[in-house]
C-alpha cells in the first residue's frame, strides 16, 4: 500500500507541478473553464453533438498541460483532427510543449506523432472524397500553423528566460568574485604598507633608542635628566616592540606579491630620491626612460614619499610587462598643494589589448587597486587610462599634508570603486560567446515558412488538378450517347473529384431507380451567371449509361 501511495503522489506531482498558490489555483480554474466553454460552443455551432465530451476533455487537458505537455499535445492533435472544438487548446498545447520539453529529439518525435494523429483522425476519414495531395497539404499546413509555430515561439521565450537567468546568476557571481578580489588586493597592499611603515618607523625609533642610550650615560646630565632620558629610551624600545608585533599580525608572507619579470631593480624601500635609481635601473635594462622634475622641491611626509616611490615603481613594472621597449616618461611636478606623479608611455602596440582592462580587479589588475588604496590612505587619488597616442597614462595626486586630505581621498577612492562596479561587463563577456536562443528559433520559423510556401504552391496545384478532374467539357458531354457501355463512358470522362462535386449529389431531376450516378461540373455551357453552376450527371445501370442530364444548380 505504501508503494501504491508513493506512486500515486509521484504521478500527481508530475501531472500537476507546483507551486499551487491560491492565486494560481483560481487563475488556472478560470482559464480551464473558459477553454472548455469555448470548445463546447464551437462544437454546438458545428452541430457535432459532442459539445459536453469535448468541453470536459479540454478542461482536463488544460490543467494537465504544464505537467504532461507531450501527452496533452497528442490528445489535442487527435481531438482537433476529428473536430474543430479543441483548436485553441491545440495552439496552447503546442506552446507548452515547445517551452517545457527540453530534449530536442523528444520534442521532434512528439510533434511528428501529433501530426500523424491529426492526419489520421481528421483528414484521412474523408480520404475517399479528397485528393491524396490535398490530404497531406491540408493536414501538414494546418498542423504547422496550429502547433509548430506556437511551439517555436514558446521555446524561444523559455530559452531566452533561461539564458537571462543564467546571465543574471553569472553577473552576481562576478560581482561577488570582484568584491573578493578587490578586498584581497586591499589587504595585500595594507600588508605592504605596514611593512613600509615598520621599516621607516622602526628605523626612526631605533635612532631614538640609540641616542637616548648615549644620553643616559652622559656624565654632564643631572640624575633627573638621565632618569627622563631613560624613560624616553624605554618608551622607544616598547614602541618599537609593539610596532613589530602589530605589523607581524598584519603582514602575511603568503600575500606578498612576487616581483614581475622585467621589474626595475632598485632599493626595496625608498622615496622620491630613490626614483632616480628606479629610472636608471630601467635604462640599464634597455628601456628609454625620461625623468623630469618641475616646481620647487619640498620635504614630504614619509607615507607620501613612499607612495610616490611605489607608484613610479608599479608604473614602470606595468610598462615593462605590457609594453616592452616603448618610450616611458616619468614626471614629478611639485604643485602648490600636492605632488603630481605621472608616468606615460606612447606608441606601444603591445599595450593596446590590455589598456581597457588595466584597472579591472577581475582581470587581475591588483597593482592599480593597491596603488589606489595607497593613495587613498594619504588623502590622494590615482587615475589610469589610455591616451590618444595609443599609449597609457598613470597619474597620482599626493597632497603634502596626508592627514588633512585623508577623508577626501577616501571618498574619491570609494567613488572610483563604485564606478568600477557599475562598469562591470556583462556576464556573457566573461565566459566566452553565448549564442542567442533567437537564432535556432529563427531558423525554425524560416523552415516552417518555407514549408508553408511549398504547401501553398502544392495546394494551388492540387486545386487546379482537382478542378480539372471534376470538370467535363460541353463538347465531350454532347458526344457521349445514352446506351454506351459504362467502361467506354468512363474512358471519356475525367476521374472526378468529390471535393468539388459532393454538394451536387442528390440534386437535379429524379434519378433512375437502381442507377449509380456521377456528377461533374460542365464547362462551356452558355448563359452561366455568377451564382449558377451547370452540372452534368451520368447515371449507370447494369454496366450501361442509362441517363445523362444537364441542369443548373444555384449556389
Folded structure, characterized:
There is one protein chain. The protein is an alpha+beta fold and 555 residues long. 60% of the residues lie in helices and 12% in strands. It contains 18 helices and nine strands. It has helices spanning 2-15, 22-46, 51-64, 69-82, 87-100, 104-123, 132-216, 223-250, 275-284, 302-322, 352-355, 366-377, 406-422, 427-430, 437-469, 474-479, 486-492, 498-501; strands at residues 289-294, 328-334, 338-345, 381-386, 392-399, 471-473, 516-523, 532-541, 544-554. The strands form two sheets. The chain has a five-stranded mixed β-sheet. A four-stranded mixed β-sheet has the order 6-7-8-9. Helix 10 links the parallel strand 1 (289-294) and strand 2. The longest helix is centred in the first third of the chain and has 85 residues, at 132-216. The radius of gyration is 46 Å and the shape is elongated. The two termini are 67 Å apart.
Key words describing this protein structure:
555 residues; four-stranded mixed sheet; elongated
Continuous helix count:
18
Helix content: 55-70%
Largest sheet strand order: 1-2-3-5-4
Distance between the termini: 67 Å
